[in-house]
Amino acid sequence: MGERITITAADGAFDAYVARPQAAKAPAIVVIQEIFGVNKVMRDICDDLAAQGYLAVCPDLFWRIEPGIDITDQSEAEWKKAFELFNAFDVDQGVRDIRATIDQVRKDPACNGKVGAVGYCLGGLLAFLTAARTDADASVSYYGVGIENRVGEAEKLTRPLLMHVAEEDQFVPKAAQAVILQALKHHPQVELHTYPGRDHAFARKGGEHYHEGDAGQANTRTLAFFKKALG
């Protein structure tokens, strides 16, 4: 199954989970974590992407705060810990770590040179910023939190971005969704889908708001998007 590699940044090094496909060379996808660290949900996403033929890499973006975070959404104590990590997290530094991951993965002998990114929750915001600030070939954002405050960055988008927005997202209220839709729905690089009745993290298996049907539809759209953009 998966393995661990070390990513080198300008000011240190951090771990990443890697799932490798059967092919000797393949496109890579950087999987950007939620607020629960590189946990089983993220590792399973990597494993699923590897089964689809991608080199999947999930970097530990909380490494400066506390390396090796691996918690769930199943207890009040874990939620408290997750929000403490979220509040201590430097988003801009996280994007720089993602850029370092993309740069290193692109040079991996198993990568064919194409690198995409997909992120969830906090990672959904980071995926949007990755699309705007890095040379990722394609990015996917699932229910990103806080994008409404950064829509001005869309002017820097030069590569494809797919966005999944939950219409009843408790962390992205209707007013915030309106800002996002107004700014991005007609952007030439953006494909945006909304999901009526769905709450935050509707694609997180085992989560309170998981919806198999809409998660399946979103994931199918994601794979089709990556196939077109990355091959």
Describe this structure in words.
The radius of gyration is 16 Å and the shape is globular. 36% of the residues lie in helices and 23% in strands. The model has no long low-confidence stretch (mean pLDDT 97). It has six helices and eight strands. It has one domain: Rossmann fold. It is α/β, with parallel strands linked by helices and 231 residues long. Helix 3 packs across helix 4. The chain starts with a strand and ends with a helix. Strand 3, helix 1 and strand 4 form a beta-alpha-beta unit.
Question: What structural class results from the helix and strand content?
Answer: alpha/beta
Straight-line N-to-C gap: 23 Å
CATH superfamily, by name, is: Alpha/Beta hydrolase fold, catalytic domain
Which geometry do the CA atoms define? globular
Number of helices, where a helix is a run of at least 4 consecutive DSSP H or I residues:
6
The low-confidence runs, each spanning 5 or more residues with pLDDT under 50, are: none
Sheet with most strands: strand arrangement: 1-2-4-3-5-6-7-8
Task: State the helical fraction.
Answer: 25-40%
Short synopsis of the structure:
Pfam families: DLH. GO terms for molecular function: hydrolase activity. The chain is an alpha/beta fold.
